C-alpha cells in the first residue's frame, strides 16, 4: 500500500475530520467502542472501527483506496498519549 498524497491543507484536513466525527459518526459508535480507533475518510464519511490505527486504516483503504483518513480514539481527545501518566502517591 502506498501513502496517499494530501489533497487539503492541514487546517482543512483537521476541520473536516473533526466535523465528520462529531456530527456524523460519534453519536453512532461512541457508546460501545470507547478506547477503540475510528478511521474516517474525510471526503465520503465512510469509517472503520478497530483496536488500532493500522487495522482501522487498512480496512478503510481496502474499501476506499484513495481515502483521506482522519483517526480518532473514541471517547478521547487524541489518538495517542504523549508523556508519562501521573499516578497517585
Overall pLDDT metric: 86
Oligomer: single chain
How many independent structural domains? 1
Residue fraction in strands:
15-25%
- Uncertain runs with pLDDT below 50, 5 residues or more? none
The main β sheet shows up as:
3 strands, antiparallel
What is the strand tally? 3
Radius of gyration (CA) equals 14 Å
Any idea what the shape is? globular
Helical amount: 25-40%
Helical stretch tally: 2
| Cα-to-Cα separation, first versus last residue | 46 Å
Question: Which class do the helix and strand fractions yield?
Answer: alpha+beta
**Cross-sheet strand order for the largest sheet:** 2-1-3
Sketch the topology as an H/E string, one letter per element.
HEEHE
Structure characterization notes:
- The radius of gyration is 14 Å and the shape is globular.
- It contains 2 helices and 3 strands.
- β1 (37-41) and β2 (47-50) form a beta hairpin.
- The mean pLDDT is 86.
- Helices cover 35% and strands 16% of the residues.
- It is of the alpha+beta class.
- It has one domain (10-73).
- The chain has a 3-stranded antiparallel sheet with strand order 2-1-3, with helices on both faces.
Task: Give a concise summary.
The protein is of the alpha+beta class and 89 residues long.
Keywords:
3 strands; three-stranded antiparallel sheet; single chain
